[in-house]
Amino acid sequence: MSGLLPVEEAQARLFALHEPLASETIYYSQAVGRYISQDVIALRDQPAAPLSAMDGYAVRFADLPGPWAISGESAAGSVPAVPLGKGEAMRIFTGAMLPEGGDTVIMQEDVAADGAQLRLNTGDTIESGQHIRARASDFAAGETLVAAGARLTPGAIAAAIMSGTPQLSVGTRPRVAILTTGDELVQPGHALAPGQIPDSNGAMLAAMLAGEPADLGLPLHLRDDRTLLSRILKDLARRHDVIVTVGGASVGDHDHVRDALQDAGGRIDFWKIAMKPGKPLIAGTVGDAVLLGLPGNPSSAFVTATLFLLPLVRHLAGARAPLPPVRQAMLAAPLGSGGTRRDYLRARLDGGTINVFDGQDSGRTVPLADANALLIREIGAPPRAAGEQVDYIAIA
Ligand code: AMP
Ligand code: MG
Predict the structure, then answer these.
(1) Are 229 and 181 spatial neighbours (Cβ–Cβ below 8 Å)?
(2) Would you say the CB of residue 250 lies under 6 angstroms from ligand 1?
């Protein structure tokens, strides 16, 4: 267990601790943010027949430039009662089926009706087939519209519904317990005695998980008590898929997470990552649950939650790509060289350029409030000049 684990290796080992949870069938109204279990394959053509894309008149292109005899109407939701005869124009509305024989739609602004007669009223050219949505022009039966493991966005939900799929099967949301530890911590908003600080990490982690498919229990707080911690871990493991502790992950006399995990019959898989902040991260299992022990410094907790906790939740919930995407931006100011661990520097991206904050002490919270990006600086990276491209992860 000596030596620091590279971030990617630690992420892979974390995911290997527990398979994705089983899938469940849910209502469309519950689907946003969930990960779909199977490919959504279109069961139908969309549109199923040629439709008008405008309010206007359906005509035969060969009859241009008119005039036409107005005959009947086609509205969305019904099948035109009669075919379109030679020299006829049928009133038609957006989303309505073309009558048989009709091959072109002229929008109503481009014609003038005079009783039962219709005349062209524009200098613009009318193209053959214009303003028609061809059959299957959106998608054809058999096409894959949403791939298994994709996150269901509002747009993906719309596509899944349009496909004709009767219901959605998604990964079950992992049940997550948040446990903050530390004798110095006081619940948010309560009066502080000397030596105490507010417990900000518990609510911060709950807020970070609010955007993920997690079934969150109430955040709990425990004093630095190894025996109590071990009893609680054992108990929480019966009802949760993930237990995330904050604080007590390091080497101090009051850091009990590793010992308590072992007392509870659990197993440590890895400890200490080659990253800054966040080095003392712990991962293991207790019962059927995955234990993730985040370091207590606010920036360390934030960065390790971004790189490990949220991806673990997505992995368990069936995500195909659980890791936050790495993007590129231009450095606004020169950046010094990298050290012996990979840095995740709190930064702000504005336009295409990224600014690294001055105070990177992992105990600070203010940079977290202003940051919208974590700039990634590799181990031993050379100094970089303003204007150079760097990697970053976007944060909410
Ligand atoms: P620890 O990992 O327990 O050694 O804590 C590292 C630092 O983070 C200490 O300064 C703690 O007071 C602080 N800390 C630990 N837990 C929290 C928390 N839940 N909210 C805010 N700060 C915390
Ligand atoms: Mg502590």
Answers:
(1) yes
(2) yes
pLDDT of residue 201: 97
What are the structural domains, with CATH classification, of the chain?
7-22+173-316 (3.40.980.10), 24-41+141-171 (3.90.105.10), 51-133 (2.170.190.11), 326-394 (2.40.340.10)
**Distance, CA of 381 to CA of 390 (rounded, Å):** 11
* CA pair distance 339, 382, nearest whole angstrom: 10
**Cα of 185 from ligand 1 centre, angstroms:** 8
Burial environment of residue 194 by CB neighbours within 10 A (0 to 12, 13 to 18, 19 or more): exposed
CA distance 217 to 173: 12
Burial environment of residue 344 by CB neighbours within 10 A (0 to 12, 13 to 18, 19 or more): buried
Cβ neighbours of 235 (radius 10 Å): 14
Q: What atom of ligand 1 comes closest to residue 200's alpha carbon?
A: 20
- Token look-up 């919930």 returns 317
Burial class, 290, CB count within 10 angstroms (exposed 0-12 / middle 13-18 / buried 19+): buried
Which protein residue's CA is at the shortest distance from atom 5 of ligand 1?
296
Look up the pTM and report it: 0.94
- From CA 357, how far away is CA 372, in angstroms rounded? 11
CB 51 within 8 A of CB 133: yes
What's the CA-to-centroid distance between 297 and ligand 2, angstroms?
9
Q: How far apart are CA 293 and CA 108, in angstroms?
A: 66
How many angstroms separate the alpha carbon of residue 181 from the centre of ligand 1? Answer: 8
Atom of ligand 1 nearest to the CA of 180: 19
Give the gyration radius of the chain's Cα atoms. 30
Q: How far apart are CA 353 and CA 348, in angstroms?
A: 8
- pLDDT for 258-308, tens place per residue? 999 999 999 999 999 999 999 999 999 999 999 999 999 999 999 999 999
Verify whether ligand 1 is closer than 6 Å to residue 224 (CB atom).
no
